[in-house]
């Protein structure tokens, strides 16, 4: 299994099987407690109580760990719960440097959390490394970046960011939700932690809410804190969600390949469209960080495409209302294509009024392109 490529690891759920019955697909372990023998020794060492550990959760974690090339992985009941677990490692009075213009849920929560804890939070345009190093001329505990960012689709040079963060004494964490481990493995670039909203591409079927954290080195003090926090504070994923996630991940490389291909074809088809002001996609040669995307991402550029409609808010709203294949809904990374008019969701964050974020699914690319084209007419 050590040498298995991602497609093999994913399809075979990193070797998980039903040991009792020989079933090829493991069952769902629903127990909330584990037995002890007459000598009061645990029947299975490590299995005490369902809040601490669960066999199905462990199996799903093993798949992510293998795909990520991580030393260890922990699953949480949502992506935000995983992010919160990482931020809770920062001591009161500490300092976080966070990339600006990232997932709004992270920004809103981090601002409130850091204010409550007396943690200094500095938001910086980390895609510009000179600004990141400027912010890290003073010590920090945690540097949080999101690559590619949602929905601005900016990239951060992860290797450089690691060097800068480590020199400032900080742990570098990457939210790599939009890339998935199929396209980008930040731990191999030196990042300490990688986070995924498994609700998105990892599960890919819009039927699970989950989040994961993976670590490069289990000895990292922040990782010890994250593990005991999940263990003791009880933020474990439910077994059914873990099982669905594992099932979803069996096709992860296939889905990511197709949705990235579709997204690139769509971005190319729309790039010079008269009704659009701009198309943002890291796979386009016109993307300001295309060269970095080519180096940092393998096998595609992901499912997220942002388009800016000429004519402002109303024009964008009209396009959204006319779409027939794309569902009007939040989220990303599913098999079905979604569109979101982000300004409606976050009107106060500087998001352009005419920006539509597309999450491109695995449908026929021609159908998707035709849908957008008819809506733009
Ligand atoms: C959705 C998302 C999250 C939060 O994940 P949930 O599973 O919804 O809690 C974090 N980061 C990014 C980039 C996301 O897209």
Automatic annotation (TrEMBL):
Organism domain of life: Bacteria
Keywords, in A-Z order: Aminotransferase, Pyridoxal phosphate, Transferase
Gene Ontology CC terms, in alphabetical order: cytoplasm
UniProt keyword Membrane, yes or no: no
Matching SUPFAM superfamilies: PLP-dependent transferases (SSF53383)
Cofactor: pyridoxal 5'-phosphate
One Pfam family it belongs to: Cys_Met_Meta_PP
GO-annotated biological processes: cysteine biosynthetic process via cystathionine; transsulfuration
Sequence positions bearing N6-(pyridoxal phosphate)lysine: 200
Molecular function as annotated in GO: cystathionine gamma-lyase activity; pyridoxal phosphate binding; transaminase activity
Family statement drawn from the similarity comment of this UniProt entry: Belongs to the trans-sulfuration enzymes family.
Record's protein name: Aminotransferase class I/II-fold pyridoxal phosphate-dependent enzyme
Origin species: Roseovarius bejariae
């Amino acid at each position: 299994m050590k040498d298995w490529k991602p497609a093999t690891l994913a399809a075979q759920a990193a070797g998980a099987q039903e040991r009792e019955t020989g079933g090829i697909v493991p069952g769902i372990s629903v127990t909330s407690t584990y037995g002890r023998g007459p000598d009061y020794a645990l029947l299975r060492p490590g299995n005490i109580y369902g809040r601490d550990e669960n066999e199905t959760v462990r199996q799903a974690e093993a798949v992510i760990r293998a795909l990520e090339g991580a030393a260890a992985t922990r699953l949480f009941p949502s992506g935000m719960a995983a992010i919160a677990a990482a931020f809770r490692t920062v001591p009161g009075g500490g300092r976080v440097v966070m990339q600006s213009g990232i997932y709004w849920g992270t920004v809103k929560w981090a601002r409130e959390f850091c204010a409550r804890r007396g943690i200094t939070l500095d938001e910086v345009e980390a895609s510009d490394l000179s600004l990141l190093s400027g912010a890290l001329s003073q010590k920090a505990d945690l540097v949080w970046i999101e690559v590619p960012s949602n929905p601005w689709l900016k990239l951060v040079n992860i290797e450089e960011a690691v060097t800068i963060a480590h020199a400032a004494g900080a742990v570098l964490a990457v939210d790599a939700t939009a890339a998935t481990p199929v396209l980008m493995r930040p731990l191999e670039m030196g990042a300490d932690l990688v986070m995924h909203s498994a609700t998105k591409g990892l599960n890919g079927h819009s039927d699970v809410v989950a989040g994961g954290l993976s670590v490069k080195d289990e000895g990292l003090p922040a990782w010890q804190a994250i593990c005991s926090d999940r263990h003791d504070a009880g933020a474990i994923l439910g077994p059914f969600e873990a099982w669905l996630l594992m099932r979803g991940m069996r096709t992860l490389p296939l889905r990511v390949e197709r949705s990235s291909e579709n997204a690139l074809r769509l971005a190319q088809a729309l790039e010079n469209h008269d009704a659009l002001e701009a198309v943002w996609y890291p796979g386009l040669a016109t993307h300001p960080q295309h060269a970095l995307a080519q180096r940092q991402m393998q096998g595609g550029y992901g499912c997220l495409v942002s388009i800016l409609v000429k004519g402002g808010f109303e024009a964008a709203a009209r396009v959204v209302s006319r779409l027939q294949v794309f569902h009007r809904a939040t989220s990303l990374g599913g098999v079905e294509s979604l569109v979101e008019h982000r300004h409606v969701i976050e009107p106060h964050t500087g998001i352009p009024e005419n920006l539509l974020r597309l999450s491109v699914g695995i449908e026929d690319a021609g159908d998707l392109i035709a849908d957008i084209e008819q809506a733009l007419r």
